[in-house]
Amino acid sequence: MLAAFSISPATAGADGGVAEAVARAVSVVRASGLPYETNAMFTNIEGEWDEVMTVIREAVEAVAAVSPRVSLVLKADIRYGHTGMLHGKVQRIDELLDRD
């Protein structure tokens, strides 16, 4: 399964930023050992259903430790029996584009 998710606290720091709280969530993802990528808006993670959902829950809890309200956006691509999709999907698109 691939999941793209974004976790953010409902309360921001004095400067309006949420980086410190988001860093707590990303640290949970990094510690999980699952393949992942983080960009400016989302974190993509790959693994089995229970693994991925456990990481997302723990990341929400990490942000909830510093914010009374947490926002979670989640999109999942569930394709049983397939692995390596975190990079494989992008690679297939790149190969098609390189043919042009």
UniProtKB/TrEMBL annotation:
Superkingdom of the organism of origin: Bacteria
CC per GO annotation: cytosol
Annotated InterPro entries: MTH1187/YkoF-like, Thiamine_BP, UPF0045_domain
Start and end residues of each Thiamine-binding protein domain: 3-93
Family the UniProt entry places it in: Belongs to the UPF0045 family.
Name this polypeptide is given: Uncharacterized protein (TIGR00106 family)
Species: Mumia flava
